[in-house]
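[job 0412] stage=complex_fold ligand=zinc ion status=START
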Amino acid sequence: MKKIAPSLLSANFGNLETDIKMVNESEADWFHLDIMDGVFVPNISFGFPVISAVKKLAKKPLDVHLMIVQPERYLENFKNVGAEILTVHYEACTHLHRTLHAIKSLEMKAGLAINPHTSVSLLENVLFDVDLILIMSVNPGFGGQKFIENTYTKIKQLQNLKIEKNLSFEIEIDGGVDIFNSKKLFETGATVLVAGNSVFKAQNPLEAISQMKN
Ligand code: DX5
Ligand code: ZN
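[job 0412] stage=complex_fold status=DONE, emitting structure tokens
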């Protein structure tokens, strides 16, 4: 099943309610929320009070992408503000296996994100422990960046491992996704596409979501 997850990082923070309602009424599947700490990435986004406010209005699952160091310190807090899918970065976790299982024991889906420089082959020993792998197709930290073409190779490698091991985790692509590359990304093996700029800066966001999905 193809899913679209609009990233609220590109929404209008002065009027989030309007943008959340648009996503509720759209063909999108999840809300993607980017949490940045100014340490793991060179930007700071938003935290718990904003997620709680989104949760009150959102009619679709919250897909929370943590770009923070030591994410294991806050897993319960993210559960409490309504995260359904919680994704941590490979590069930010020393005891990754423990962290993924801690997320699951809190009854959230466990996601694992990798930066553009991180090889898919490094994931072999955690593939059985995840519900989702997020392949960053830009360097994390900002919306509106250019898609990195090598992502297709990584999707193919991951898709091969998924088939070989008969697994069913989602393959999510994040960064520079738009109506021009969405079809090829789904065909290559992606199952969830995150889209910030290409949704919220579009003339017609509902149409942009629909075009990417279909
Ligand atoms: C980047 C974030 C993305 C970002 C995507 O660090 O993880 O989710 O919002 O934005 P676009 O779709 O504009 O590249
Ligand atoms: Zn993201």
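The longest strand covers residues 31-36.
[job 0412] exit 0
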